[in-house]
């Protein structure tokens, strides 16, 4: 079986390219058009030098770098909901860019619903993942709403049925002679969903857990990328990996050291502000309104005794987070770059320079996020494994009461809590009398 059934829009028969303006002008001219001979000879415009091209590219890249930095910090300080919107947009655009790599022109094959199915599976996956996040962090709101309660309690089943509908529709639209192409598209779509949408979902969860778990990993990756370039051009000699010829071992190691130093000082700044360390309780919060919570012990400095060595103090006060940041900085320096190497290998496979042109001077969104996806995934897993405090939440208690108790038993729980709060002096006697009355609707 050959590869004649699959073509990619980025390449066609090796060196085929779109004809330039001068090449299009080499053919026979129209009767009234000027030709290269005679008094109306046409002169070619002066060629732009490589220096001018690089200069223009550098200026464009610099301008858009500052635009992205300004937009990022504006969203960071404006509130969690704006960062979630940015992550959502990144998911969608990155998915579109990756899918476009293997997008065979369906018009030539007269195949319907190819692109529609791609977007349907994206919407279904995002509905499931976003629903899981909202239920996990805001179940105390959803489970007490009469309209949202059925969607909350049956969310996973609804998501599964939506996916099954797309799967059945895909099988029903298979056409003889195009099986290879259609199954390739099906597999490619699911790979993109896992590598982009699923990993980006964990980045969004990091925002809910606290701004620091989003900002710090992202800044570590950016810092590592910058210092890998600086160290590489300064004293880099040994090639690191063939997929990225410009990456050097010296730059790789130097960036690791610089990223650890940056992470230590940046963490020391962020742990002082509750806006960064508190989990989100109000999506309308911003740097101006702030957040209030009992800080995780990992952010509270503790006293450690040092060995009795000359020139060393006997004790040192440091937050445990400073030890954890060593792991984060190491992962962002030694492991996360392989997300970029993976993307480089993918682009070489399809003979493209960038995933897209979403960001002028930088390429596509995926080109800038290739390391961030795996870093965000790692941050979520590490946080929940070694840092998160696992305790019952209001949403967990409400969910248990709604799904595990009868209405009469739920009423007894409310009365018992009311009596306890009255004994603690938290509620008044009038509220207790109301709770002890017959409030059940019969």
TrEMBL record:
Question: Keywords assigned by UniProt?
Answer: Lipid biosynthesis, Lipid metabolism, Membrane, Nucleotidyltransferase, Phospholipid biosynthesis, Phospholipid metabolism, Transferase, Transmembrane, Transmembrane helix
Recorded E.C. number(s)? 2.7.7.41
The metabolic or biological pathway listed in the UniProt record of this protein is:
Phospholipid metabolism; CDP-diacylglycerol biosynthesis; CDP-diacylglycerol from sn-glycerol 3-phosphate: step 3/3; Lipid metabolism
Give the UniProt subcellular location, in the record's own words.
Membrane
Q: Which reaction does it catalyse?
A: a 1,2-diacyl-sn-glycero-3-phosphate + CTP + H(+) = a CDP-1,2-diacyl-sn-glycerol + diphosphate
Q: What is its main location?
A: membrane
Which GO terms of the molecular function aspect are on file?
phosphatidate cytidylyltransferase activity
Q: How does it sit in the membrane?
A: Multi-pass membrane protein
Where is the chain membrane-spanning? 58-76, 82-105, 117-137, 157-174, 186-204, 210-236, 248-266, 321-343
Q: Where is the composition biased (Polar residues)?
A: 32-42
The keyword RNA-binding belongs to this UniProt entry's keyword annotation? no
GO terms classed as biological process: CDP-diacylglycerol biosynthetic process
Cellular component aspect of the GO annotation = endoplasmic reticulum membrane
Q: Which Pfam families match?
A: CTP_transf_1 (PF01148)
Q: Where is this region: Disordered?
A: 1-48
Basic residues bias: start-end ranges: 1-10
The record's comment on protein family reads: Belongs to the CDS family.
What is the official name of this protein in its record? Phosphatidate cytidylyltransferase
